[in-house]
């Protein structure tokens, strides 16, 4: 017996033990890649034309400022950018399912969700530019800081949800994480705590097929949405490139949570069209064919087709969205360029809320050290 | 104004938690077995009965989960006091403590506060099996964003816990488990000293002994023994390992000109290393001898039948005092 | 919405989502508490009278030296003891299912499994007496050291199994852990690694209903055996007080693993009849009724009834086992009392395999320090 | 005997891993993205292609799982070289490292050996986001049972990695990521110095600079700059943080009578604290000035645009040199 190739192994394990999968269609879909509305036995949605156009607008805006950020990184204005290209529907659909009083715990890629929460894109760019490590007020939009250590925020979300329940509030919490993150112990512990305390939290996994260079089979040999059943709460897989289905499923999940039914897992089946980040070279590990296949499932294109075919939006609308997104991109571009570098003394700020003698001492020493160079070029003191 | 009462450190912490639960509805107590059992050391005895399961919470057996959800609860406005059952079991939570709890206030440019207290019964001397006798405080004090304290008396146990809970920063609260049953006076109406202020607990002129938590008692005993030999040792209870009150210590060393630091934790990169380095820098021309350190060896905490040999005791402290005085 | 009482919450969650449970009887049983043999559609066993008597002997011996250890702790000869009382069938059944070349990763309570592996009970007592932190050679009986940090060993077992598979060996690995441990991130990560690499490891969870003072509902709101399906491998619950069922199920699971089918989870549903350890006071958190209910399901009594009723063993046999177990207890008692304290210099031994300058320095310093007291009473140097 | 080749530190580690994989079939390389991608820094580039998925293993995204299974593989007789993608992501594995990897040899009274190498690209200076620039070495050096090293040159990178893999103890191998692309000569047939031996890399008489990993280069630059001002600085590359070669350092300090320790890690309880404490004890009557330390502040690693201010640089080192010489 030897360890066999991943593909063989995972399909064998998977095929044999998918078990519950037969009970319902594996992927909830309301809008096909071709832009056709379909119905689903459990999930339905009925949106006004304006709402539909809003979703389109959100997705286009998101893609646009995300693309602008990639450009800004290339131009040296940002140190790094984690593009969400391809995941607009998963993010806009789920973000728009939240209520203002709900609380959102993102990873580092939820630029679209941030948009739906009213967070200014410029705020997101600060950490990628290297002027701060987060820096917006999470309580302003109930949108927590980006979290880089994979999986950590799943526990924060669970604790927050436990607190919301204690307060007697009917707000729900949503925790984002990736397919790779599903392997982290913290995510499993979050499942356990959420189940045991019946916390009103939705775990929203964007399975974009890749964790940097590793395909999802390196993380699980069964679909990720099945993970939650063994912790005692339901899971569902939704077409993550179908903004309508994502909205419907996330709404239902949040409703489930806020009505006292406890946690729920949503797996949005989507695809990371770009590289992992601007530092990554995806050609080293994945084939163009795969990307092409997913390009045909583009979340924005399918909604556009639907809007156009159904006469829900006209050329003027599309042109207007285009123009507005250009304006947004311009604002982002100019805003980033204008972002000042922080004052070096900021190193010593906000380490403690109630002060700390060592920080005071080091701050004073550094100020004295810096003062030596005052009025001189850097290093000119010697 | 209530009269001072005599109680153990264990009882003092229990009273402190009780008062905090009473006075602030946002205070929560959480951890493994803290409910009906009252914790394996009974520190939370009776609290769940009186404050309910909603405020005194038995958690799943998962330390990362405990601290991670405590962070979430703090984000929601609660003030969780999380218990780690024993020193050696804090490590599964180390990631949440170091990368999240310690850094979130700075990450949010001050917009978020995390008033989380992590209670850790620590140190040896109770004849326990592996992982139940360690002193990992340096591993927390090295990390910016955390405050680290340890009381040595019932009064400090009571007040430092109240202050830790009231503090808006995360505090790692190391409880000297082998001193849990030591008694002392607690005046719950006294105005306490600041949380991070060291205290001269015995005055002397020949040498300063600096310690915290369980070793303060050992140092006081050593000072008494030394007195019989005609030596006057000053004992400083540091009380806080992050920040360390170097001003108080410096004043003492400028007077006595010699310093021995004592802790149970391994000497190599223990808090004594920082104290030696910084006091030497501050008092370079005052010191008659190098700062000496007495502590654990660079070895895993040994099995119980060897801990008497491993742990700093009166003889080991006095041996170092002799060495320092011989310079 | 507020967090409701555990019982209400967990039964609601449980009832609603047990899902797969209907597909097969929830608990595999081959010998009823009344000592009657029953058949099971998936698991069967056919043992010789001698084998059956052997299992009985193992269980009696185990209970006896375990009880002796409790006594020795009361007498101050041990610092602590974690009694397995009530879990003899779970341990003997599973231990006897292993082959000599299989590898066992225990927690701190697997005294019965150790017995089946040929580990001398005296070896187990060293760490509880405080003369070492483990101290037997794991490779002698393929029985790893006791691991106290909950859940850690699940990953070691998985790594070991990955290695066994790499070696082309058909040995399997079994990892023991408790119901409480099922909450630890490490156990979930072990499930993930084992599934992804198809490692030949059996996860054997002794659900003894308690993690110190916490009932299993504090860890999960569905039966633990269901946890594995969402990681892509099967789980099964067995009557942990039925040595025949445990043996049959564990054998099958090990077979599953060694034949290249990958990991499997076995939940042995049993009960911790004693306190958590000799330091614990179980009366603070659990009711006598519960203990009484489980006493009626005693694993040894039911096998004895069966042996007697079927004429597979006579009074002489039972008396002989009793006498032998007394002899074992005596040997353990005397052996423990005779166990020497380690040499203080042993503090510096085996920290590194290849040496370390700091350890050498501290060893020398300590030796010099100790030498001061030579010939004098302790502390007499002053 | 092959001729010395010029290569980067990155390439040297790659070559070292390659040679180890070639010469010992029990050597495994494992971690996130180490396979097809060759790791985010390409340190394992081409290894999976040449040695197969069975020996160069992409793991699930779970650091505790990586180290925990590496321990199991080592128990089975393998010699795993596990990569942690960045310094800040080692903490989920900290429990397995501290409570299992470090202690199992002692727990088994020597019956079990765990030859596991943990590779950690560490330190700042690359303009990265949070958690990608930290220097947590003190958190490992404090723990008995681990060895901790960091190379500063391609030659050391090559040889120290080979020695770490051959070592029967767990070795935490800190790779100075901002020096990955620095070039130097590597003689793969030379007989290397012992893994834990410090090296005087520049001789001097007025003061000793001690550093390791990324700061060795900074110290050498500082020594050159100081030379122009007529000061002769000796530079010691410590190479190992556990154990630390205090003999070599002591010899240097007895000659120069002054010591400045430089590391990127926060000063408070950083390795410099231990060095200051111990060298002061060993060289008390030789020292003309207290041992000074240059390092990070007691602050979370700052955002990239502040790292130039945060990190020790030539000016900060020379400032401390001035201060030490002024005593
Ligand atoms: C604990 C931890 N380990 C490693 C990393 C490095 N890392 C950053 S993103 C990433 C992959 C994440 O994959 P996934 O969870 O699928 O999210 P995605 O990037 O695809 O959105 C890795 C390994 C990290 N940030 N945190
Ligand atoms: C990481 C860790 N946290 C806490 C403990 C303290 N502790 C020891 S046993 C135990 C309960 C274990 O329960 P379970 O897993 O059900 O095993 P059982 O004792 O019932 O056999 C706890 C909390 C520990 N040993 N390790
Ligand atoms: Mg992904
Ligand atoms: Mg249990």
TrEMBL record, chains A, C:
<keyword id="KW-0670">Pyruvate</keyword>
<dbReference type="InterPro" id="IPR017596">
    <property type="entry name" value="PdhA/BkdA"/>
</dbReference>
<dbReference type="InterPro" id="IPR050771">
    <property type="entry name" value="Alpha-ketoacid_DH_E1_comp"/>
</dbReference>
<dbReference type="Pfam" id="PF00676">
    <property type="entry name" value="E1_dh"/>
</dbReference>
<keyword id="KW-0786">Thiamine pyrophosphate</keyword>
<dbReference type="InterPro" id="IPR001017">
    <property type="entry name" value="DH_E1"/>
</dbReference>
<feature type="region of interest" description="Disordered">
    <location>
        <begin position="1"/>
        <end position="26"/>
    </location>
</feature>
<feature type="domain" description="Dehydrogenase E1 component">
    <location>
        <begin position="57"/>
        <end position="333"/>
    </location>
</feature>
<protein>
    <submittedName>
        <fullName>Pyruvate dehydrogenase (Acetyl-transferring) E1 component subunit alpha</fullName>
    </submittedName>
</protein>
<keyword id="KW-0560">Oxidoreductase</keyword>
<dbReference type="InterPro" id="IPR029061">
    <property type="entry name" value="THDP-binding"/>
</dbReference>
UniProtKB/TrEMBL annotation, chains B, D:
<keyword id="KW-0786">Thiamine pyrophosphate</keyword>
<dbReference type="InterPro" id="IPR005475">
    <property type="entry name" value="Transketolase-like_Pyr-bd"/>
</dbReference>
<feature type="domain" description="Transketolase-like pyrimidine-binding">
    <location>
        <begin position="7"/>
        <end position="182"/>
    </location>
</feature>
<dbReference type="InterPro" id="IPR033248">
    <property type="entry name" value="Transketolase_C"/>
</dbReference>
<keyword id="KW-0560">Oxidoreductase</keyword>
<dbReference type="InterPro" id="IPR009014">
    <property type="entry name" value="Transketo_C/PFOR_II"/>
</dbReference>
<dbReference type="InterPro" id="IPR029061">
    <property type="entry name" value="THDP-binding"/>
</dbReference>
<dbReference type="Pfam" id="PF02779">
    <property type="entry name" value="Transket_pyr"/>
</dbReference>
<protein>
    <submittedName>
        <fullName>Alpha-ketoacid dehydrogenase subunit beta</fullName>
    </submittedName>
</protein>
<dbReference type="Pfam" id="PF02780">
    <property type="entry name" value="Transketolase_C"/>
</dbReference>
């Amino acid at each position: 017996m030897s360890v066999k190739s991943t593909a063989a192994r995972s399909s064998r394990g998977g095929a044999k033990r998918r078990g519950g999968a037969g009970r319902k269609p594996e992927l909830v879909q309301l809008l096909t890649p071709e832009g056709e509305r379909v119905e689903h036995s459990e999930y339905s949605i009925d949106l006004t034309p304006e709402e539909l156009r809003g979703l389109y607008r959100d997705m286009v805006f998101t893609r646009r400022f995300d693309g602008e950020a990639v450009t800004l990184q290339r131009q040296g204005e940002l140190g790094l950018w984690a593009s969400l290209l391809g995941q607009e529907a998963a993010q806009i659909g789920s973000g728009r399912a939240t209520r203002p009083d709900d609380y959102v715990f993102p990873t580092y890629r939820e630029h679209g969700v941030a948009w739906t929460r009213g967070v200014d894109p410029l705020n997101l760019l600060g950490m990628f530019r290297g002027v701060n490590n987060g820096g917006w007020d999470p309580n302003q939009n109930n949108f927590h800081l980006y979290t880089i250590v994979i999986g950590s925020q799943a526990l924060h979300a669970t604790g927050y949800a436990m607190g919301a329940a204690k307060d007697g509030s009917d707000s729900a919490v949503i925790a984002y994480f990736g397919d790779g993150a599903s392997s982290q112990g913290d995510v499993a512990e979050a499942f356990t705590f959420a189940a045991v305390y019946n916390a009103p939290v939705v775990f929203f996994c964007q399975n974009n097929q890749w964790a940097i260079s590793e395909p999802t089979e390196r993380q699980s040999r069964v679909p990720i949405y099945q993970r939650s059943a063994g912790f005692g709460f339901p899971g569902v897989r939704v077409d993550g490139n179908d903004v309508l289905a994502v909205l419907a499923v996330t709404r239902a999940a949040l409703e489930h949570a806020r009505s006292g039914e406890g946690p729920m897992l949503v797996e949005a089946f989507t695809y990371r069209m770009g590289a992992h980040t601007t530092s990554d070279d995806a050609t080293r590990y994945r084939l163009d064919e795969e990307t092409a296949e997913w390009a045909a499932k583009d979340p924005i294109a399918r909604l556009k087709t639907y809007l156009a075919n159904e006469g829900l939006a006209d050329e003027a609308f599309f042109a207007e969205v285009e123009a507005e997104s250009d304006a947004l991109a311009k604002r982002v571009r100019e805003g980033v360029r204008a972002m000042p570098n922080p004052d070096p003394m900021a190193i010593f700020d906000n380490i403690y809320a109630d002060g700390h003698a060592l920080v005071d001492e080091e701050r004073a020493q550094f100020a004295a050290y810096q003062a030596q160079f005052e009025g001189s070029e850097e290093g000119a003191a010697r | 104004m209530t009269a001072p009462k005599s109680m153990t450190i264990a009882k003092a912490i229990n009273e402190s938690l009780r008062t905090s639960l009473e006075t602030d509805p946002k205070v929560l107590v959480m951890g493994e077995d803290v409910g009906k059992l009252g914790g394996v050391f009974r520190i939370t005895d009776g609290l769940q009965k009186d404050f309910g399961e909603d405020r005194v919470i038995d958690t799943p057996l998962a330390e990362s989960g405990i601290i991670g959800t405590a962070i979430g609860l703090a984000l929601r406005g609660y003030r969780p006091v999380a218990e780690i059952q024993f020193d050696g079991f804090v490590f599964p939570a180390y990631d949440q403590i170091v990368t999240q709890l310690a850094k979130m206030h700075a990450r949010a440019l001050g917009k978020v506060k995390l008033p989380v207290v992590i209670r850790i019964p620590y140190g040896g001397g109770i004849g326990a099996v592996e992982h139940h006798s360690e002193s990992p405080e340096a591993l927390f004090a090295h990390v910016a964003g955390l405050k680290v304290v340890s009381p040595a008396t019932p009064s400090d146990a009571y007040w430092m816990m109240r202050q830790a809970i009231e503090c808006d920063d995360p505090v790692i609260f190391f409880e000297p488990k082998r001193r849990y049953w030591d008694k002392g006076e607690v005046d719950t109406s006294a105005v306490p000293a600041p949380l991070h202020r060291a205290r001269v607990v015995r005055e002397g002129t020949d040498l300063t002994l600096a310690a915290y938590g369980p070793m303060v008692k050992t140092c006081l005993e050593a000072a008494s023994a030394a007195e019989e030999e005609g030596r006057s040792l000053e004992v400083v209870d540091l009380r806080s390992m992050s920040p360390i009150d170097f001003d108080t210590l410096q004043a003492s060393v400028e007077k006595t000109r010699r310093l021995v630091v004592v802790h149970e934790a391994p000497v190599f990169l223990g808090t004594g290393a920082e104290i030696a380095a910084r006091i030497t820098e501050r008092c370079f021309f005052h010191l008659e001898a190098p700062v000496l350190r007495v502590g654990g060896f660079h070895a895993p905490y040994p099995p119980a039948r060897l801990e008497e040999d491993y742990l700093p005791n009166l003889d080991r402290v006095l041996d170092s005092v002799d060495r320092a005085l011989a310079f």
